[in-house]
Amino acid sequence: MGRSDPNDDRSDPIGVGSNSDHNGSGPIRSELLADFRLSQPKSDDSDRPLDKRRCDGMEDPRTLAARVGERLARRGFLLATAESCTGGGIAEAITAVAGSSGWFDRGFVTYSNLSKQEMLGVSPTTLAAHGAVSEPIAREMAMGALTHSAAQVGVAVTGIAGPGGGSAEKPVGTVCFAWIMTTGGMEDAGLGELVVCASTRYFTGEREGIRRQAVATALAGVEEMLRGE
């Protein structure tokens, strides 16, 4: 993936069919992840950008989490998170909100490549082809969060918070996101159609500042996805 404009937010809606075996109780739906990999776009081009004003990563994460919770509760949806560089920061902001147990199902902190494979079903082939910090990996992490939970909405983040680990192609501050949502609610028997959005951002600042911006951007993307439905 080539480096894009630092302010460029891009997304890819993807429909991957339905699964009538899902009963809302959170069984592992690994067969969906295999289908999802086949459906991923070959390029990062898209036609559904997220609202940049709402994804600038500057708003307080707990304020964003509270608004996300209100929207999830109104829809009867549960949220699952899959985090790498933020190390559980998204889940921390969510669980700081009173009543979040009503709409937050679970969070995965998958810092190593092995944990991404074991806990989320991320493909070693995708890792080898694109690297851990890439939109294809973020998409597979988000899908893995759904297939290993009872959630209808998922968010994933993987990036380079620094101060080391960057490269010319992927400098420190590069963070890839993916958001995924089903068309059905908790009462539905199947997953229905899936909508997936992905984005790469280039943040500046120190390690904690980059991580905080990533947490806020992840939550802002969830809010925007729910707003658009």
UniProtKB/TrEMBL annotation:
Residues 1-58 are annotated as: Disordered. Residues 1-12, 42-58 have a biased composition (Basic and acidic residues). This is Nicotinamide-nucleotide amidase. Coiled coil: none annotated. Transmembrane segments: none annotated. Residues 63-226 form the CinA C-terminal domain. Pfam families: CinA.
